[in-house]
Amino acid sequence: MNESKYLVVGATGGIGRAAIKELVENGRQVRAFVRNRQKAEKYFLGMNSVEIFEGDAIKPNDLSEAIKGCSTLFYCANVLYTEWIGKAQPLLKVSLDAALSAKARFVFPGNVYIYGHAQYNPVDEKHPHAAHTVKGKIRIEMEETIKKYSSEKGLQFTIVRFPDFYGPFVVNGFSEKVYLNALEGKSLQWIGAKNVPLEYIFIEDAGKCLVTAALSEKGINEEFNVPAFALITNKDYLGLISKLGGKNSKSQILNSNLIFSFIGLFNNLIKEVVEMLYLKQEKLILDGTKFKNTFGFLPNTSCGDGIQKTFDWVKSYYKH
User: Fold this and answer.
1) SS (H, E, C) the chain
2) The domain 5-167+200-228+286-291: what is its CATH number?
3) Distance between CA atoms of 136 and 46, rounded to whole angstroms?
4) From the CB of residue 116, how many other CB atoms can be counted at a distance below 10 Å?
């Protein structure tokens, strides 16, 4: 197997960029597969070992060219919620076929959607895949497709599942806006329950865990759950952001499925968000025992430290 390069598809997404940062810090040569070179150059400023490859992840020829000389494909691509039904599976299969053809390991950052409501906490890798949402069922299909490529075609894979991300380069029109508002003294808007303990994992912790599993033979054809450093409520999370933002911003946490359902009548993206609100309203905590027993560590960035690092990035990236 050629160990010379690591291909990251979806390189300008939060987890894609975090994986590249970790790979570079491990002295690895990285090829970042992106749609927009200009955007990518801003994301990878100062990372001289990152080669930018511009292409379209739905085009097999682009992936076949990009993966040449690569031993591993990190599949960090994603699509808008409104496009999951038609695009998520076809996009995945293009990268799977490329990895299979190149005999490259396929690394997949998973999430908690596959579990549905937690039947017990903490949720380990043996928890039933009992998604009750459309997007959760799609994620189950995606993981099953990866495992089918392994069992029937010999593909090597690694799946590492995470809770919700926060941190540098987590840009979705929602998360980063909270930090920007905090720097301007504006109201911080969030969704979910105020006082239910939840998990938010610092994106660079997630990147380190993903890369660690991907670089180790112990991660071959294995799946791992990785928790956040600690539990925190939405109220306390926003409280820390307000405090560290320095402007004493007020918080507004919306927790009405009815209101979101009504707004969803006029906004397709909000309509898609509604079915996932439960993850901001009820406890679902990941069990990191298997990962820690295998690799010897778990995320160690506290929310306070992670939020401060996020502010440092926001100030630099948005010239604030």
Assistant:
1) CCCCEEEEECCCCHHHHHHHHHHHHCCCCEEEEECCHHHHHHHCCCCCCEEEEECCCCCHHHHHHHCCCEEEEEECCCCCHHHHHHHHHHHHHHHHHHHHHHCCEEEEEEEHHHHCCCCCCCECCCCCCCCCCHHHHHHHHHHHHHHHHHHHHCCCEEEEEECEEECCCCCCCCHHHHHHHHHHCCCEEEECCCCCCEEEEEHHHHHHHHHHHHHCHHHCCEEEECCCCCEECHHHHHHHHHHHHCCCCCEEEECCHHHHHHHHCCCHHHHHHHCCHHHHCCCCCECCHHHHHHHCCCCCCCHHHHHHHHHHHHHHHCCC
2) 3.40.50.720
3) 37
4) 19
| Chain segment 144-193, per-residue pLDDT in tens | 999 999 999 999 999 999 999 999 999 988 899 999 999 999 999 999 99
Q: How far apart are CA 127 and CA 83, in angstroms?
A: 28
Is the separation of the CB atoms in 149 and 211 below 8 Å?
A: no
Main-chain dihedrals φ then ψ at residue 188, nearest 5 degrees = -95, 115
295: tokens are 């690799």
Neighbours of 121 (CB within 10 A): 14
CB 18 within 8 A of CB 203: yes
Token readout for 3 is: 């160990």
How do residues 187-245 score in pLDDT, each as one tens digit? 999 999 999 999 999 999 999 999 999 999 999 999 999 999 999 999 999 999 999 99
Handedness of CA 246, 182, 15, 297 (dihedral sign): positive
Contact 125, 290 (CB under 8 A): yes
Whether 140 contacts 129, CB under 8 Å = yes
Q: Quick one: CA torsion of 298, 304, 310, 316, rounded to 10 degrees?
A: -130
Write down the domain spans for the chain.
5-167+200-228+286-291
Q: What are the CA-CA distances from residue 43 to residues 36, 37, 84 (Å)?
A: 11, 10, 25
